[in-house]
């Protein structure tokens, strides 16, 4: 059995309550369950980590080098999370960057991710569905 890392950055622990008009009403637990459902057929177990601190997210990545892949919503760390970027550059498995909102329809400072050039793919603006799609993409990218 392999693991799939599901990493969520700052402020994502309050999903469902935090600005639902932007981020939707699904909670992080709802998203975790949806991703687990997507990957269950492959026998993958979801290891979910949500932290407010960039350093703690880096530790989670380093601890997860043996994972089959990762889904990462870095939150605002996409903008200037250079230490997280360095950790992702060294992360061996494929990973998908996900954002609930369409960052390109929001403030201009959100239009560039320092992480995206390293990702296997990026999904934005599809709400919680984006996580399911990222799981499906990883299932397709990682040999059975």
Automatic annotation (TrEMBL):
Gene Ontology BP, a term: aromatic amino acid family biosynthetic process
Keywords: Amino-acid biosynthesis, Aromatic amino acid biosynthesis, Lyase
Pfam short name (any one): DHquinase_II
Enzyme class (EC, first level): lyase
EC number: 4.2.1.10
Catalyzed reaction equations: 3-dehydroquinate = 3-dehydroshikimate + H2O
Keyword Lyase: yes
Record has Cytoplasm as a keyword: no
Transmembrane segments: none
InterPro entries assigned to the protein according to its UniProt record, in alphabetical order: DHquinase_II (IPR001874), DHquinase_II_CS (IPR018509), DHquinase_II_sf (IPR036441)
Catalytic residues (UniProt): 23, 99
Molecular functions per Gene Ontology: 3-dehydroquinate dehydratase activity
Listed CDD domains: DHQase_II
Cross-referenced HAMAP family: AroQ
Function: Catalyzes a trans-dehydration via an enolate intermediate.
Family label: Belongs to the type-II 3-dehydroquinase family.
Oligomer and partners: Homododecamer.
Record's protein name: 3-dehydroquinate dehydratase
